[in-house]
Amino acid sequence: MAQQPGAELAPGEYPPLRGIALVMLTLSIAVSSFMEVLDMTIVNVSVPSIAGSLGVSPSEGTWSISSYMLAAAVVQPLAGWIGRRFGEVRTFVTSIWLFVIFSALCGLATSMPMLIACRLMQGFVSGPMMSVAQALLIRNYPVHLRGLALGLWAMVIICAPVFGPILGGYITDNWSWPWLFYINVPVGVLAAISSWIILRRRESVKVKVPVDFVGLILLVVGVASLQYLLDNGNDLNWFASGRIQAAAAISVVALAFLIPWELTDPHPIVDLHLFTRRNFVVGSLAISAGYFAFMGVNVVFPLWLQTTLGYTSTWAGYAIAPVGVVALFLAPVIGKNIHRINLRAAPTFAFCVFAASLFWVSKLNDQASFMQLATPRILQGFGLALFFLPINQIIMAGVSGNELASAAGLSNFLRTISGSLSTAVCVWLWSDRTEYHHGQLIQTVAANAPNTLAYQAQLGQLGIEGVPAQAVMERVIGGQASTLGANDVFMLLFVLYITMIPFIWLARPPFGAAGTRAGGH
Predict the structure, then answer these.
(1) Domain 271-521: CATH class, spelled out
(2) Regarding the domain delimited by 14-211, which CATH topology (the fold level of the hierarchy) does it fall under?
(3) How far apart are CA 72 and CA 285, in angstroms?
């Protein structure tokens, strides 16, 4: 609700910022949030280079990714508690400074254990950054512009994962991998200084409560075990491995005990009571399912382009980038007009657009041109801005000011875990379906079949016979199987989007959240 002129402000509440101070705050929060999300994907395409430089295998190099995501996922649900305990402004600025320090140490790493340790700490200190940033935006923007603020924030969250691999590939190819981390230093320093100058006298109310050590231990153990399972399941053949079985059992037990403990503890470290609110549950599950499918495409699509179609990492990045470019321009427009939008119809339309683009991609083959591959991503970009921001408004419906960071942290945690789960499941599914189609294709390629003989004759005219000819045919079959497997993944994600549409309509208006203007009904 807007503050009435002359009305006394509650403790921890301040008049909205205006003018250059508001612009500078927006830029500071945008670049810091961009850094935090970007670092989840910027290393992806550089793993071979990092692993080679530090003398380890590429599979060991992937720990530079998973260690960061693990630590960030653990801390995200704690953002609300940390913000209340130490103050949201101090938490945000301190998080940026520590992120800068550990980014520099990552670049200076001389061994893989050192890099993993620094990435782990980088994830820990960055965990509260994005959730507290969202709360600070809402607190300091005028009521009539809060939709625009969230639109700008959503634009950052949408675009960072898309541009991460492109930027990572360019830096690795043209400079060296330590610069993946060094670039955070000047940007982070400026963001921290400007944020402190603007917000140092606008601190939120601090609440000193006992530390819920039992809840903290259960959360860390449960999430760490789950993340280990997701990161290593494919390599260890999932539940055929004793380590994966142990990780699954520990995760289930720890998280199962965490739920009743947090619901009954007088000072829970994770506020699970938010799940008693219908819109929070609907919005969180919708954004988790939508992000699951979104990340599944973002992982399988570029891998398919590189392993089957022969794309370089840079050109694979160009092929997936249109989704971010379109959303980059649409998100602020959607945010500015969020109060005019039906907050259930908008994500319904977005899911239809996502489903249509995935159905389109699922029908492409390994002969598709660059434009045929990139055009569905342009279509998906139109849906992306209408998906993220309206559902985020549904999540925040009815959330009070002192619960903003908790609600944002918990929903961001679910989104992060959903992305990790998607990466593991979709890559495994693609591999499994590729093996299935490979077996089916091998059975259809009989030695004396007319098509086989005709293809062998074509190879013979090129001087390719015997073992080399068999190798060529195997590559062709492997490429076709990989394409069919990817098509199966895209089709399943298409079904997921369609299935989620009725679920969105379980949300109930009004959708005015934490002082933001109510969205459409």
Answers:
(1) mainly alpha
(2) Growth Hormone; Chain: A; (1.20.1250)
(3) 20
